[in-house]
UniProtKB/TrEMBL annotation:
<dbReference type="GO" id="GO:0032259">
    <property type="term" value="P:methylation"/>
</dbReference>
<dbReference type="InterPro" id="IPR050508">
    <property type="entry name" value="Methyltransf_Superfamily"/>
</dbReference>
<dbReference type="GO" id="GO:0008168">
    <property type="term" value="F:methyltransferase activity"/>
</dbReference>
<keyword id="KW-0808">Transferase</keyword>
<dbReference type="Pfam" id="PF13649">
    <property type="entry name" value="Methyltransf_25"/>
</dbReference>
<protein>
    <submittedName>
        <fullName>Methyltransferase family protein</fullName>
    </submittedName>
</protein>
<dbReference type="InterPro" id="IPR029063">
    <property type="entry name" value="SAM-dependent_MTases_sf"/>
</dbReference>
<dbReference type="InterPro" id="IPR041698">
    <property type="entry name" value="Methyltransf_25"/>
</dbReference>
<keyword id="KW-0489">Methyltransferase</keyword>
<feature type="domain" description="Methyltransferase">
    <location>
        <begin position="49"/>
        <end position="139"/>
    </location>
</feature>
């Protein structure tokens, strides 16, 4: 397990500052992403919300702006440093979605926005078990990821050499794994690629049973 986590951490440490600069205004250009996040925010309402794999905190800050009590967790200390620099009023911690340092049933909502893409498929059930553990009964999780069935070995990103894997997935397969973890489907939405995107994008909203 250590090898892929080390590779992912090192790659995102390398790109953190440029990733933040390049994506700083991306949400403003994505009507659909904002719509999904708005629906999630409205459903979650009050209570703590963790942005797991928050990167530079751009989406954490957006959720905060929608009125949520949002904080971020990321594997990459470099990303967390940038997130704290850019959003000093918000809380960001280093951590892995495979072993979250959060109490049981402590969250009203959990966002995993293009972060499960770096978790090998055989380890996804472990991540989803963690999502289930930390969500309160009735809590919502929203996941976004690229649709497909390939594992992409990424060697270049945001102007840097990197070395990590990104997993494209079927929404049905991910939905089935979430359901097995006790996170029941609320909505599954797929949109066609926009701009530089190469594949359709999936958004899965699930809910922990009450
Ligand atoms: C494509 S970026 C997305 C960042 C952010 N969600 C956004 O949309 O800007 C993927 C992020 O997931 C983080 N990540 C990857 N594997 C992780 C893990 N096991 N636990 C926590 N974060 C992870 C990476 O460090 C990186 O910051």
């Amino acid at each position: 397990m250590t090898d892929f986590l080390d590779a992912t951490r090192t790659s995102y440490d390398t790109v953190a500052a440029d990733y933040a600069d390049i994506l700083r205004t991306a949400l403003a250009d994505s009507t659909f992403d904002r719509a999904m996040l708005a629906a999630f925010a409205e459903l979650v309402g009050d209570g703590p919300v963790a942005d797991i794999g928050c990167g530079p905190g751009r989406v954490t800050a957006h959720l905060h702006g929608l009125g949520l009590d949002a904080f971020g967790v990321d594997l990459s200390p470099g990303m967390v440093e940038v997130a704290r620099r850019d959003h000093p009023d918000l809380r960001f911690e280093v951590g892995s979605m495979l072993d979250l340092d959060l109490p049981d049933a402590s969250l009203a909502g959990l966002l995993a926005w293009y972060s499960v893409i770096h978790v090998p498929t055989d380890l996804l059930p472990g991540a989803f078990a963690e999502f289930h553990r930390v969500l309160a009964p009735g809590g919502y999780a929203l996941l976004a990821f690229q649709v497909g069935d390939e594992v992409v070995h990424v060697t270049q990103g945001y102007g840097h050499d990197v070395d990590l894997e990104a997993y494209r997935r079927s929404p049905d397969a991910v939905g089935a794994q979430l359901a097995e973890a006790g996170l029941a489907a609320h909505s599954t939405l797929v949109r066609q690629p926009e701009g530089k995107e190469k594949t359709p994008q999936a958004y899965l909203l699930v809910r922990k049973q009450s």
